[in-house]
Every structure is written in structure tokens, then in C-alpha cells.
Amino acid sequence: MPTYVRKNHRDCTLAERGRFLDALLELKKKPSPKPHPANSHGTIYGDFVAVHYDAFFSGVAHGSPNFLPWHRQFLIELEIALNRTTVARGKPFISLPYWNWIDDRDVTASPWVPDWLGGDGTGLLGQVQTGRFGVPDSRLPELLSEASMAKLRAAGKIRELPYEEGEAIWAELKTKLNELPPSRKEVWLVHQVVDERPFLIRECVLPLSESLPFHHRETEAEKEARRANEGEWFRDRGLGLLDVLDHTTYDVFASFFESDQHGMPHVALGGHMGSAGSPNDPAFWLHHAFVDKVWADWQRKQRRDHPNEPPYLPVTGANGTLGYTDLFGPWSTHSAKTLINTTNIHHPKAGRISYTYR
């Protein structure tokens, strides 16, 4: 693989956006040679969702210092898959763009626009209606009975219906999708997700700007205002990006970063991003590319200001937490040690990997 740059999504050309989205859509249709048991669609993209789902609940990918290097490898694996699509053949390398949620905080602006990731889940099912992954309400009658459509229109959203009625509509939708002839199934496959809710769901907490991480160090007055909202769950620490970057030991930095600044965008976007199946939403990749960038920024700061601090803790694994040289599943090809330096990663399938952020 070449030396490459992961860019801010704002700096991607229309051609770069198009290749990225086209390659993702190809992975959503292409059968996996060995589908993951939890991959209900049997596609290559479905494997990525299923792997994350598994790792989320096993504790390998979340809730421990493994979080950052595990996801670093996860992003690399997707980039390898993207660049093996027919879309990528003979074209410039497809690298993951990142969403800087410090700067881009408006749900009506990029990347939440029709020619990029699509917008909020404004549909009757809570589904995204715009963009390459969206399903507009106007297409739902192809899959739902007139009676079900009438109920949805009267309620405004499926979540406003009684639970039993909503579940019946989801079941009807799933049955109809399963009964489609092969030619029609492929048309709908790119819009489906690996979940009991077949379409991409977003439920943004509005205004989005008040739900996303901020840059400055949180003031005491801001913390006290937050205390009133968080109650017994109050986090007695600053939630600004600069606050978490101040930590100088890896395990403390990784723990707070995962639960706070990384977690806030997942909650803010809601829907699939707020679940273990978050890679169902293509926003996952842009969000986690920025998470990886923040870690890379912290690493650079550590090398400059605290060169004697270990780059990863714990050095030796215990109680389900992997140590510095323990290999991450399900790939068993890399450890935190081999993923520490983004400009010198050796992958058994792709050779030397070297990337930076701009």
C-alpha cells in the first residue's frame, strides 16, 4: 500500500467522495467469502458490522485500553477492503476521511448533506431519507401495505405508535424484503443494514452543536451546570478535548477519551450510531478516523513532552485486557505495539502501511 493521507472530509474532492461512497456500496453488495455468523446479509460490509458487534460485547474493542489500537486496525482493514473493490481498480488510493466534530456541528451542513452522508432520520421509520444510503418515505409503499402506511402517516413517526403496532410494521417490512425476487433484493440490499431495523436510522439530539464534544477546557461554572443535568451520573472532570489531551498516562487518557469525547458523537447521532451495530452508519468511519487522529495527536504530544511515559498500558495483559504485545482478535495479526506508529505498520495482506493526517 502507498503512503497516504487521511483528510478532513471538507477537503475531499467530489471525485474522492464519490469513490469512497461507491466502494462502500460495492462492499454492501459483494458476498463475503466466509460470512461472520452474525452477518445476516452475507456481504463483506456486513462482516465489518458483525465483527464490531461481537467485539463490543466481548470487551475486546470497548471498555478497556484496547479500544484505540483495536479500532486503528479496524479502520485499516476497511481501507484494505475499499481498495480491493472494482471501484478502486486503477484509481487513486481510497483513504478514510475524518469528521472533525469540534468544527462541524450543524446537522444541516456537510457531511450531513445529500451528496455526502445524508441527513438526520426524518423518515416515518426514523430512517435517513437523503444520500446514497437513504430511503425516502415515497418508496415505503413498495414494501408496506396501505394500512401500515396510513398508521405511520397518522402517527408521524413509528416510535409514536403503540409498541405492538410498531413491531408489526417492522415485521411486515422484513417479510417483504425477504420475499423480493433476486433482482429486486439487490436493489434494496445497498439500503439495508445488519440489524433488526432494516434501514439506516439516525435520531440526532438537536441542536447537534450542544451534544458534541467541544475544544476548550471546561470551566468550573460549566461543570456545575452539567452536574444539574447528569445528577448521580455526574462526571467530575472536564469534558473538553483539551481536558482529555492533558492526561499523560495512556490508560487514563484512553479510558476518559472513550467514554467522553468518543462517546458523545455516538449518542448525539443516535439510531445505529448509538448501538453496538454503529458501523451500519457510514458516519462511523468518519467519526473513528477523527478519534484515531486525536490519538495520533496525543501520541505526538507525548513523544515531545513525556518521552519516558509508556505509549500503551498495561504492558502485560490481565483479566481480559490485552497487553502491549498481545494480538487483537478476530484478525490475530497486530498488537498495540505494531499499531503504535501510523507511518510504520506491516500488514500481512497489504504490506507496509504508512498514513498521516492533514
UniProtKB/TrEMBL annotation:
Needed cofactors, names only, are: Cu(2+)
Q: What is its EC number?
A: 1.14.18.1
Q: What positions does the domain Tyrosinase copper-binding occupy?
A: 62-79, 281-292
Q: Name the Gene3D superfamilies on file.
A: Di-copper center containing domain from catechol oxidase
Query: Could you tell me which InterPro entries the record lists for this protein?
Result: Di-copper_centre_dom_sf, Tyrosinase/Hemocyanin, Tyrosinase_Cu-bd
Write one Pfam family the protein is assigned to: Tyrosinase
GO MF annotation, one: metal ion binding
Keyword terms of this UniProt record: Copper, Metal-binding, Oxidoreductase
Give the residue spans that cross the bilayer.
Answer: none
First-tier enzyme category under EC: oxidoreductase
User: What family, per the record?
Assistant: Belongs to the tyrosinase family.
Q: Which PANTHER family match?
A: TYROSINASE FAMILY MEMBER, TYROSINASE-LIKE PROTEIN TYR-1-RELATED
* Name used for this protein in its record: Tyrosinase
